[in-house]
Write a structure and sequence with these properties.
The complex is a heterodimer of chains A (about 110) and B (about 120). Chain A starts with a strand and ends with a strand. Chain A has no helices and eleven strands. In chain A, strands 2, 4, 5, 9, 10 and 11 form a six-stranded mixed beta sheet that branches. A five-stranded antiparallel beta sheet of chain A has the order 1-3-8-7-6, with no helix packed on it. Chain B is mainly β. Chain B is about 0% helix and about 50% strand. In chain B, the strands form two sheets. In chain B, strands 2, 4, 5, 6, 9, 10 and 11 form a seven-stranded mixed beta sheet that branches. Chain B has a four-stranded antiparallel beta sheet with strand order 1-3-8-7, with no helix packed on it. Chain B is globular and about 40 Å long. The chains are: A mainly beta (about 110), B mainly beta (about 120). At the A-B interface, β4, β5, β9 and β10 of A face β5 and β10 of B.
Chain lengths: ~110, ~120
């Protein structure tokens, strides 16, 4: 079993739709959690950290469920520019960041 | 403020050749990392450094060496390139200091092909 698992997608959604991704992790000792966005042939860029109480940044909402060991990302009012791969990242120590393989999102006009 | 800068951006090597990838950061970060990204796989840690003069092995260190002679620079070397090392290489950094809530900052990658 992979340490961090994501549905690879692609998720094809129309503009304006709401879409949600989940990410599960296997190590209950995981300390911190992040969502990154990666455009084709580009570097990962931090989208948002995920806090225990859940957090929101504009159209994006992230949630953490430690009991079930998953994090989620909700995107509301999808834009064409949201098309990318979304990476789930779990930190298990000062240097140990475990990356999911990513979920591809395509927002269609 | 450039953040994390990688050079070169692209390179094609022949099997057996050697080369060095350079990562430079101007954020005064303590920790630096080298990853490789292959299709269908998450980023995998090659080597990392928690400070000037220190390096440590990650998940996939074989065939690579690293050096951190200056705090701002982290070099990744391939002594004898193999086709299996064809990949996209990313450097990243974090502030360090033992905090666990720090996101990583990435360079824009080096695309390396070994023929």
């Amino acid at each position: 079993r992979k340490e961090v698992e994501q549905d690879p997608g692609p998720f094809n959604v129309p503009e304006g739709a709401t879409v949600a991704f989940n990410c599960t992790y296997s190590n209950s000792a995981s300390q911190s959690f992040f969502w990154y966005r990666q455009d084709c042939r580009k570097e990962p860029k931090l989208l948002m950290s995920v806090y225990s109480s859940g957090n929101e940044d504009g159209r994006f909402t992230a949630q953490l469920n430690r009991a079930s060991q998953y994090i989620s990302l909700l995107i509301r009012d999808s834009k064409l520019s949201d098309s990318a791969t979304y990476l789930c990242v779990v930190n298990q120590g000062t240097y140990k960041y475990i990356f999911g393989t990513g979920t591809r999102l395509k927002v269609l006009a | 403020n450039a953040g994390v800068t990688q050079t070169p951006k692209f390179r094609v090597l022949k099997t057996g050749q050697s080369m060095t990838l350079l990562c430079a950061q101007d954020m005064n970060h303590e920790y630096m990392y080298w990853y490789r990204q292959d299709p269908g796989m998450g980023l995998r840690l090659i080597h990392y450094s928690v400070g000037e003069g220190t390096t440590a092995k990650g998940e996939v260190p074989d065939g690579y060496n690293v050096s951190r002679l200056k705090k701002q620079n982290f070099l990744l070397g391939l002594e004898s390139a193999a086709p299996s090392q064809t990949s996209v290489y990313f450097c990243a950094s974090t502030l360090g200091g033992g905090r666990l809530d720090q996101p990583q900052h990435f360079g824009d990658g080096t695309r390396l092909s070994i023929l």
